[in-house]
Description:
- This protein is mainly α.
- It has helices at 3-12, 16-42, 47-68, 75-103, 106-113, 116-123, 133-151, 166-185, 194-213, 218-224, 227-255, 257-261, 266-279, 285-303, 308-316, 321-325.
- It has one domain.
Amino acid sequence: MSPRRLIAARVAHIPRTTRAYVGLCLASLAWASAFILGKFVLAELGALTAAAWRHLLAALVLLPFAWRGRRAANWQAALIPLAFMVVCGGVLYPSVFFAALARTSATNTSLLIALNPALTFLLAPLVGESYSRRGVFGIALALSGAALVITHGDLSVLMSLTSAHTGDLLAFTAAVIWASFNIAARGVVGHLPNAMTNAVVYGIGCAGLFALAAPQHPWVQVANASPGALAALCGMVVLSSVLAGQFFLYGVHAVGVNRTVVFVYIVPVLTAIGSAVVLGEALLPAQIVGGAAVLAGVWVTTRAPAAAGHAASHRRVESPVGERAA
């Protein structure tokens, strides 16, 4: 047996939920790395330009894997939710996110977009997943921890989030768009391989992003960028866009939307730690306390009993999408 088949056989013996949670932890690390690498990228490239190139490179990396899994695709069943994912995750979310960041503070933007898992949890009944008391408590605990990490313990920031702030409204809209993307993913993961789903979202999305970035001359910017900035951009593509995207969709398929999306709360904690080590930013006591609350909230939510609706959908789709895409 070849080393690759031997590794695959050993991984196959690990329970699917365990694989999903390990993958989601790695996805959180990859997403957190994107914030640090993004500091180096945005020092030389415009925001929309960076997003457009990131989507294009990610689509090219995923294309061979997507082509390999083409026979497992059920396009007819996935077409409508996939189109919704392309519009939300490929074009609208990055566009609205950068528009919000240009009009309000980074703190307000990150705090409001951190509402994404809570909004996803609220929308989850649309795809057959129901609420649980333990899940609601875990969401509330994790959101409180995320607020502490993002605000550095100065919760008075929450009082400034009024409807009069256009940027704040855009940031909230971005969170709603991301939550809608997560919900739509539930209708796709059982019908398309993960690599194919992400390749389509990134591939079509990059066309829209390049159109939006045209005034920034994205081709000229990337031609003039330093090797360090380009290496950071490639790191974002491989870690955040490709690997994290694969692990995220596998998690949606294996353990449901509610339990998967709560791992987003770990990202601010890991980002704070990484920033302290790599960028020399101070790690405040409030961030440590908030990080503990985030991890506790993730644990509570992932320990919550599976809802009946999710169990039924889980039985209908027996083979993991991640395995078919490998």
